[in-house]
């Protein structure tokens, strides 16, 4: 495994750990009653994720270009599968870290409400008192959380299934477009611009069904129309769906790449 692949996997790991932890922000927002503040503070983590994503894309493209010139472009499939494995591991670890993150993030929200300054919150986190709080906040998922997966009471099965499908497609979209470029190197630029063809369904599902449902459920908890236990159970299923989605993406990678290849060839014939 080359240093470049290791760096790409580390960046992928950071992106997906933060992406998984994002679902706990709503839990903290509901518990503290400060949803807007919770999302504002989480933007710091989102910035780290976007920065990692900014570096990941050119590294992948550079590696692909080198392998195309070396005549072994199709070997990129191994790299893409390693990236998907990194996604799965990161999502699992992110899920394990959620209890700890909820405690730490809850304290950060309360601290921000007092100091009203992100820099002061960050400085407090690195202080002796902040380190002590971190140690006290470390927690592992309770057995009760796993037992919740056995109960489908008040769980929107369609939303859960849609979340799994949308996650798997979103995970594979960019990788499929890059691998399609490896399959037809002479049209790789066109392939790389067609990731929205694969991601389209995932984007529609996220914005029209999944995100609105979670937002409505969050409001229901605040109004007392939904119990915190039912809300937590829903988040557990959503996060579980993220893990399943990264695994399912392994099976979708090659078929999605060939879909892009077919579209590119049609476009290329049309403009000749």
Describe the protein.
This protein has helices spanning 3-32, 35-70, 76-115, 118-125, 128-137, 143-147, 157-183, 188-192, 195-223, 228-270. The chain has 272 residues and is mainly α. The protein has one domain. Helix 1 packs antiparallel against helix 2, helix 2 runs antiparallel to helix 3 and helix 7 (157-183) runs antiparallel to helix 9. The longest helix has 43 residues, at 228-270. The radius of gyration is 21 Å and the shape is globular. The model has no long low-confidence stretch (mean pLDDT 82).
Rg calculated over all Cα atoms = 21 Å
Percent of residues in beta strands: under 5%
Class from helix and strand fractions: mainly alpha
| Mean of all residue-level pLDDT scores | 82
The proportion of residues forming helix, as a percent range, comes to over 70%
**Main beta-sheet strand count, sense and barrel state:** none
Calculate the terminal CA-CA distance, rounded to whole Å: 41 Å
Task: Spell the H/E element sequence.
Answer: HHHHHHHHHH
The number of E-state strands comes to 0
Shape: globular
- What count of domains describes the coordinates? 1
Poorly predicted regions are: none
Q: How many H/I helical runs?
A: 10
